[in-house]
Fold:
Amino acid sequence: MSESPERLPRKTQQRSLRTKQKLLDAALEAFSESGFKGTSTRDIAARAGVHHPLITYHFSNKDRLWRSAVKYVFEDFILELQRAQESHADRCPRERFATMIRIYVQYAARHPALHKIVLQESSYQSDRLEWLSENFLNPLADAASRYIGELQEQGVAPAGDPIIIYNMIRVSSGTLIALALELKSTSGLDIENEEKLEELADLIVRVFLPGEVARN
Structure:
């Protein structure tokens, strides 16, 4: 039996969305491994298991695919942080920030491309790095450093430039996880192990949030 005409567009749209998602996932993987210059659209299409011309159809060119992939992973990460903030709105400031750190660690473990792409783009100046900084890195840094400043005033976070502390937390979490293969090879440390991830998050919280909020 042939399908009704009204169902065909919906099926076509769903197939198009699945193809687009495959390309985004493959692009994140490829760009995080080889960088923008070292990645070809043919490699991305092969990883996604789709025909190469579909990249042009959905994203026009490699640069737009890169930006779409980066936007996809960062917006998903920010959404997860926002949900965690909302669900812990009644907690004390230290507990809320400790939760953000743990979310950070867990997300970085599930999506290592988040930090690997940043590392790839940080090796030289480019329009992509400026776009990434303006749209995602700078807003995250501004929000986190303001919060750290508030925690310093309450005696929770250590003294020092809040932006430096924020970036130390980033290095201790996402960047450390991005180096998982090297850590396993040089020290036998399996940072992707669930218990080790929890230990890492707990250590970061103890180091960077050593104080307690005064209770009235």
Remarks:
- The chain has a mean pLDDT of 91.
